[in-house]
Amino acid sequence: MTNTREKDHIHGAVIAVTGGARGIGRDIARQLAARGARVAIGDLDGDAATATADELSGELHGHRVDVADQASFRSFLEAVTAQWGAPDVVVANAGVMWVGPFDEEPEAAQRRQFDVNVHGVINAVKLAAPAMRARGSGHIVTVASAAAKLVPPGESTYAATKHAVLGYLTGVRAELRGSGVHISAIMPAVVDTELAAGTATGAAHMLQPADVARAVVSVIERPRFQVTVPRYIGPLVAVVGLLPQSLRDFALRRAVPNQVEAVRGDTSRRGYEQRVVDSGGHADPESRQIE
Fold first, then answer.
1. pLDDT tens column, 161-218
2. What is the dihedral of CA 95, 99, 104, 105, to 10 degrees?
3. End-to-end CA distance of the chain
4. Active site residue 158
5. What is the mean pLDDT of the chain?
């Protein structure tokens, strides 16, 4: 398969996608399968993962996986390997978010965000990257968030998890340099999914899941480390970072939404966030998807 992948990094490749039953993950799976990849859809809701695999066109299979549980993640990758061979690409897409004032955030939501958003990515890397390094090729793509660069009020813990992910991937990428294993971080602004319900977009327009999926497909075709969606977010952050603090604060207040204000009095997130709080009992927040 090596020669095929040198010509086309997607057609015929084995690609595992977490949080793949709905939202961004579903679109990632759909677009990759349309390009001829064999796509393993992993999701905390195993039934939804199977249903999505059955609904989409192409070669897909659904699996239950709790990305925060290393044993569950290992079983997922082992099942994929048994069926199709070791994954050429792992897309770490699952994520959860609680929005509101920092001092009102339930401890369960705080912990679950770190479990899924950070430990889920670490599990993906630790379980997939060594085998990729041993064979001299592979790619791990993480769907992170623009919150890895910018921090909206009301998303302090969520942003902390995304900053942690970017820091972790930066270190791992340095360790893997020259190994043939690529690391990529996709950082979209607000995406129209249940995760972002009731939140504001700030200066950016609302993205659709397909927009982020296209960025994932593009980075698999041509690996890059950091990709912001829309693209101008990266240069904007770099320029704003050169300003004195007072001017930086002013610019960011204009560009970055205040999510505390956006969700005040709004009830559209109530069901989703209750699932985040309850997900220690294996509710299904991750498949509703990520920003």
1. 999 999 999 999 999 999 999 999 999 999 988 888 888 888 788 899 999 999 999 9
2. 0
3. 33
4. yes
5. 90
Sign of the Cα torsion 38, 44, 47, 48 reads: negative
DSSP reduced 3-state for 205: coil
Main-chain dihedrals φ then ψ at residue 16, nearest 5 degrees: -100, 130
pLDDT at position 126 is: 98
How far apart CA 252 and CA 247 sit, in angstroms, is: 9
CB 119 within 8 A of CB 69: no
The answer, yes or no, to whether the previous bond of 230 is cis (omega within 30 of 0) is yes
CA–CA separation, 28 and 214 (whole Å): 8
Q: Residue 64 has which token pair?
A: 């239950």
Catalytic residue among 158, 168, 232, 272: 158
Cβ-in-10-Å burial (0-12, 13-18, 19+) of 289 comes to: buried
Main-chain phi, psi angles of 167, to 5 degrees: -65, -45
Partners of 141 in the beta sheet?
Answer: 91, 184
DSSP state of 116: I
Which residue reads 């699932």 in tokens? 275
CA distances 51 to 35, 61, 172, Å, are 20, 9, 34
CB 215 within 8 A of CB 28: no
